[in-house]
Known about the structure:
By secondary structure, this protein is an alpha/beta fold. It has 13 helices and 23 strands. Strand 4 and strand 5 (92-96) form a beta hairpin.
Amino acid sequence: MEKNVEINDMLLLLDNYSVESRSLHESLKQAGYDCPAAVIEDDGFLPDDCLTAYGFFLGDFKKERGEAARPRYFNEITAPDYWEISGDNKSGKVQDLDRDRGKIFYAEPAHRRLVKAVDWYDERGIVRFSDHYNRYGGLYARTAFDAKGKRVNKSYFSGAGREVIVENYITGDIILNEAEEVKFFRSKTDFVLYFLERAGFQKSRIFFNSLSTPFFVSQRLDPQAKRDVLFWQEPEREDIPGNMQVILNGKASRAARIMVQKRKSYEKLIALGARKDMVHRLGFIYSFERENGHKPEALICTNSDQIEHLERIVKALPEMNFHIAALTEMSSKLTGMGLYVNVNLYPNVKMKVLEELFKKCDYYLDINHQSEIVSAVRRAFLNHQLIFAFQETVHNRDFIAGEHIYSSDHAGQMISDIRNIMADANLLERHLRSQKEAAMAEDVNIYRKMCM
């Protein structure tokens, strides 16, 4: 990462680049804010427009690795001779005969099997260290564990393999080897403050989404007009966090406003007595791929044959065409559903085909058990598909209207509602509006007004 960064008036300071962090970053950019993102915890696969507090000091992996600068496929990790490396669409493993020696974790989307980290086990099967790889295939960090499997420290390496940073998890100290100088920081907050200084952001207005390190950093920067903003993205809880109370009581040195990005969290905070003049509801600006075409085409993405009430729904809605896609082979139970004329099966689906299905279908049924694949619910939402789910199967409530989530005991009501919506274009549009309201979809003007 280049270090010659312009001084900006605004910086988005994030603990990590979660789905909510990315949505906030993209929303600010769409609203016209020149707001770079600085991510404290680097997972190795951040977008080009993100700085990282650790990666800033590690140099340019892309340049260092040259033509080899690409993510590592799961079977490209280094392992002793005769150890076997294997994997599926969820994770990989390393074995010495019948003994597990390591576990491979993938970057999302997991089905691409690109290595993000590898845990290595000792003779007792306890993790002793983890290797961390980035999107250029470089080993950029290694975490060491003690004999009980507790984290001890983490070393960060340059593209040339030089140890640049050592973080001690026991003491909280961080040591930075910068050029010919060794710098010692007593806390992560101290380290991030130094990073902001070196990157030219120490005078920037700070937007942050965590009450841990990002908030502590905001508190330690030079006091100015209270222009820093907390974007609260956590689920509802039964109390107001202590650090949030510091802001609400007017005792924060720089922050005086809180934007809550989950509907129930906002309602709960207000019910707990949070000040309405300081706490505001603000969702995200979404980049929708297309409009709903009102077609009787429904998509289900799954990697198991455990799909709640599938046969009942298929038989009750003969006018609906169901497209069931999986990244893996399908069991005989699921392939048997292909006997129905309104069911189309896509085992081992190719990504190009799956992309076309998201564009083709106007309904999404989040009714598969087990884990979600390909961030399907979010993708369905961005493709303006009307989404239905069961309480027992729902994977991502943020993008589904509450009225579209049913108990499995009320599958008949779901079927009835879908049938009525299919028959009435105006009703479909009304339900799509409810879905967008539930996801707190905002427009550009609202963002500009709220973030000024």
